Amino acid sequence: DQQVKQNSPSLSVQEGRISILNCDYTNSMFDYFLWYKKYPAEGPTFLISISSIKDKNEDGRFTVFLNKSAKHLSLHIVPSQPGDSAVYFCAANYGQNFVFGPGTRLSVLP
Amino acid sequence: GAVVSQHPSRVICKSGTSVKIECRSLDFQATTMFWYRQFPKQSLMLMATSNEGSKATYEQGVEKDKFLINHASLTLSTLTVTSAHPEDSSFYICSGVGGQGTTYTFGSGTRLTVV
Questions:
Q1: Measuring CA to CA, which residue among A75, A53, A72 is closest to residue A62?
Q2: Taking all residues of chain B, what is their mean pLDDT, rounded to a whole number?
Q3: Number of neighbouring beta carbons within 10 Å of residue B107
Q4: Which residue of B has its CA nearest to A50?
Q5: What's the pLDDT tens digit per position in A18-35?
Q6: Are B105 and B5 in contact (CB under 8 A)?
């Protein structure tokens, strides 16, 4: 049973528009959530995170929203740029336990 | 979809012993395997990159003699934590790259506790 789901395997967005990547989790024990970005042939890099005591965290063009009651988080990128084209993974953490989602491939079209 | 099977999912070992973690790509050939370590509330830390048939490339600060990585085949990579100490307790996760970079999948991770 997948504890962390990213139901959209791919997403295409026009440059300058908003990209919204979604992630759902099932385990209410998770108290920290992270987003990673991965370019082809490279390892993933940390992007942004959020603690379960918050519902929003913003860093430049990237904002993560957390809805604990719905067990849902989303990553907003605005404005989207071609360089944002990558695979985005969300991850959920509690204690020493980490679970990663399967990833969403974002393509930002010029 | 592509699957990387990582075992064991959790292990407890005594200080001074060695622990081997395996990652197998089940339905694709992982030409490259990344090994990560993650501490709670911190970002994923890349430890090393291994390409099949060649020596692993370690990130700065990672002891290659302590964290032995073997990538002898396109479907199997192993990380051996030698002479483990309590400070090695952590969550270790691998990821495999294949399909000319189009396939990238995380393993399920291993929680190591050294007592």
A1: A75
A2: 87
A3: 27
A4: B41
A5: 999 999 999 999 998 989
A6: no
